[in-house]
Amino acid sequence: xxxxxxxxxxxxxxxxxSGAPYAVRLVQALVELQVPTWLxxxxxxxxxxxxxSGLSSVAExxxxxxxxxxxxxxxxxxxxxxxAAPASGSARTSGMVVCPCSMGTVSAIAHGTSRSxxxxxxxxxxxxxxxxxxVPRETPLSLVHLENxxxxxxxxxxxxxxxxxxxxxxxxxxELVDFMVARVLDHLDLEHPVGKRWGIQA
Length: 202
Description:
The structure is a single chain. This protein is of the alpha/beta class. It has a single domain (3-187), classed as Flavin prenyltransferase-like (Rossmann fold, 3-Layer(aba) Sandwich). It has helices at 3-6, 20-32, 43-53, 58-65, 67-73, 103-111, 117-127, 143-155, 173-187, and strands spanning 10-14, 37-41, 74-78, 95-101, 132-136, 158-159. Strands 3-2-1-4-5-6 form a six-stranded parallel β-sheet, with helices on both faces. Helix 2 links the parallel strand 1 (10-14) and strand 2. Helix 4 crosses helix 5 (67-73) and helix 6 (103-111) crosses helix 8. It is globular, with a radius of gyration of 16 Å. It starts with a helix and ends in a 15-residue tail after the last helix. GO terms for molecular function: carboxy-lyase activity; flavin prenyltransferase activity. Belongs to the UbiX/PAD1 family. It catalyses: dimethylallyl phosphate + FMNH2 = prenylated FMNH2 + phosphate. InterPro entries: Flavin_trans-like, Flavoprotein, UbiX-like. This is Flavin prenyltransferase UbiX.
C-alpha cells in the first residue's frame, strides 16, 4: 500500500478572504507531499485567486502547482454540490482546512447554517470531531468576528490567523507565505520541509 492509498484525504477549502498566495502554496505543498486532497473553491474564492494570484481556472491552478502531481492528488468538488462526498460524515477524511477563511464563512460555521459545500464540510468536521483549521485574514476584527472565532474554537476548530512571524528574518514574500503554510501543515500532523523552524538552521 503506497502513501496515497494509505491516507484519508484532507479537505481544503478556499474562500473569499484576502490571502490567495497562502492557498496556492498550501495546494502545492500538499501535492508535493502526495497527500490526497479534496479541493473546494467558493465563487468568491475563484475571484480571489484571479485577483491576487492571476489564476482564473482549475487548469491554471493545475499548471501552476504541477499538473502531474495535481492530477495524482487533487479531487475538485463544486461548492454548490451539498451532496458531494465532503458533505457526509461517513466519508472519512484527515480533517479540513479553510485557507483563506472569510469572516462570512467563519460566521456560517459558528452558527451551523451550512449553505454551501464548504460550510457543510466544515460542519461535518466539527460533528465528527475531526481537525478543522481556519485561516482568517481580516483587520481590524469586530466584536462579531471575535465572538464567532471564539464560538468555532469552543466547538473544536483551530484558528490560525494569517499573521506570519518575523523572527526567522524573512527577506521575501514567499518566506512569509511559507511561515503560515508550515503552521497549517504542522497542525495536520504532516512531516514537511516547508519554512524554517525556530532554532534550526536551514
